[in-house]
Amino acid sequence: MKRRDFIKAGSAGLLAGMLLPRCSLFTLPAATPPVGLQLYSLRDEMNENPEKTLERIAAIGYRHLEAANYNNGLFYGMKPAYFRDLVNKLGMKTIASHLIFSSDESREVIDAHLEAGIEYLVWPWIGKEQRQKPGDYKHLAEKLNELGLICSENGLRFGYHNHDFEFYPLEGIIPYDLLLEHTDPAYVFMEIDLYWIAYAGPDPVEYFEKYPGRFSLWHIKDMTEGPGKEMTEVGSGIIDYKKLFEYRAMAGMEHFFVEQDVISGNRFNSIGKSYDHLLSILE
Questions:
Q1: What whole-number distance in Å separates Cα of residue 219 and Cα of residue 163?
Q2: Residue 113 in contact with residue 157, Cβ under 8 Å?
Q3: How far is CA 135 from CA 77, 132, 141, 195, 211, in A?
Q4: At a CB cut-off of 8 Å and minimum separation 6, what does 192 contact?
Q5: Cα distance between residue 97 and residue 65, in whole Å
Q6: How confident is the model over 226-235, as a mean pLDDT?
Q7: At 22, is the pLDDT very low, low, confident or very high (cuts 50, 70, 90)?
Q8: Which domains can be identified in the chain, with CATH numbers?
């Protein structure tokens, strides 16, 4: 039987499959980290008025953040120390940052993130021209290992964030498997986007089992039932996050972030709804 326990089945609310109780082999963390938010969810608001936006995020209850606008030594147009102090004064901490950079730029990037108090750097995306054949992913893995080593030598962590395309076969090979096999766990972690893996079809628990401890960061957003597979607030779709969080120790999860790329309606209400649901299933 194919296990898809993390997908809720139909309107009756039954689970799609039955999992064996493997979780008992792993000790759960003493405490789940605070609910985090990937700021890409509010990218327009952050660009228009970052101070006011951060205040409203803090008022909802979020305590951890992941940045998505680092450029030329600045975060959302702010110097690293200013951005750090602004976030910290609101009772929050920026844990991670999405960015693309070369080894030649690494000194400036590392100094800026250290000053901002950010520990995790995440490669967020590769273009279509960079993912045409398995060899492209092997080349990417080499680059990730190189940057991961540089980050590690400077007290930072480095990882890769997936979408759906990494799970579609190329010449009979699953690119995500290739990345996991060709990146060094000592230098490269995975930030697993649980919406996109659900969108593509695989069971994330199978990855947690095969590659335990590799998935340090999680992206959390839900998916509507039906062929559209649209993004929706956590708790409003078919992904069973309560079940998935039972595997957080096996996966190696250290932090997680709500990230909803597409939001219809009021964005603050949307991230508030996701926050409330996560709080209810993690208490």
A1: 11
A2: no
A3: 37, 8, 10, 26, 22
A4: 162, 204, 207, 215, 217, 218, 219, 251
A5: 9
A6: 97
A7: very low
A8: 33-282 (3.20.20.150)
